[in-house]
Amino acid sequence: MTTQFINVDRDTPYLFPPSVQDYLPENHLARFVVDIVEQLDVTHLSSVYSGKGSRPYHPSMMLALLFYGYASGTFSSRKLEQSTYDSIAYRYLCANTHPDHDSINAFRKRFLTELKGLFVDILVLAKTMGTLKLGTISLDGTKIKANASKHKALSWKYANQLESQLQNEVDELMQLAQQADNSVLPETLDIPAELERRESRLQAIAWAKQEIEARASVRYEKELAEYKAKQDKRARHEEKTGKKPRGKLPKPPEAGPKDKDQVNLTDEQSRIMPSSSGGFEQSYNAQASVDIESGLIITNHVTQHTNDKQEVVPTLEQLQQQQVSLGKIDNLLADAGYLSEQNINASDKAQITPYISTHRERHNPALLDRFAVQLDNPPETADPVEAMKHRLGTKEGKALYGKRKSTIEPAFGIIKHVLGFRQFLLRGVDAVNGEWDLVCIGYNMKKMFALSA
Q1: Extents of the domains making up the chain
Q2: Is this structure's pTM higher than 0.90?
Q3: Class level of CATH domain 119-149+283-430
């Protein structure tokens, strides 16, 4: 019995050349990305080009290429270039053209600062489509590895030791150079090259020490202000009650660098941060807030701070800037890492109700603790902190705060595990902020596509 197979013919040419519109099904993410980008106003990008030199690729096409790349897990400019040959979706996006990786990377770096405006414009489109209806947002942060190795970090203690060692080697090489005419030196020893190498390293160490000293000075000023605030608070308490405050006396800060203070020689603006898997990595702290109904990322920024306590105010400022375009936020959910009196007061001032946990949540709490709720009203004299603690204990407050983990954590999970974005490609806090915008745009594009279906 003979089986009739579908004919495989790779040699017969098409009678008519196919259109890129024939490449993809109607319901495809690449088509959705193109539709969104075509609705964006990119005149501020196209007007930058002077018209000299070779003809550039249109900004709309380059944006669609980058947005789709970050929405589908392709971040490298070289991989994006290769995809324009290998992938049907990328051939559709680029209309059978092939931007080289230098052009892609140059475009990405050139317009990093403009991405924040496009991020908001895309959210405006989501609101117009009915996908986004703001009300409550959930805020959190995640550590993302910098484009630098932690082994390239130089501590204050080691920098001083290495500087002394290299200086001694320079002196030894100078002595060998003076004795070169009267003694036999190893054939492989190139004294000028060895001197140049050590001088170069000494210059790098001198810069690193200067940077560490500058950071130590900033830290000392901050710690000194906090110390004085604690002293004043204790003095006011003693004056008000006539009793000395309990607890240890605040310890005055010490000026100058500490032995473990360090700077990275590859990306000096990144910081050593604890990783979720244990240990430490050279990283940045990427912040994002998510609308709990749609799951779309509403605000984002990258910080060098290891903890999250200082990130509520920048988020509120971004929300304030977006209010005209997107509308007002009602509630803000955050875990105990964001808890501070300053953050609660800032939220109240912005007329946003904060739900910031006052303690680290335990796994498997006791049965009665799960169902215990506040039934009385908060006292009329309650300050914003006391009012929030009471609000978190009510039935409505517990139900609302319970949505925090199930809304923001999936966003980070998709970005890291589905899209595979675990490390920044660019260096420096400004460039990394722009790349985080790209990541969040790619995530929102993917989410909007799923919601629109």
Answers
A1: 20-111, 119-149+283-430, 150-264
A2: no
A3: alpha beta
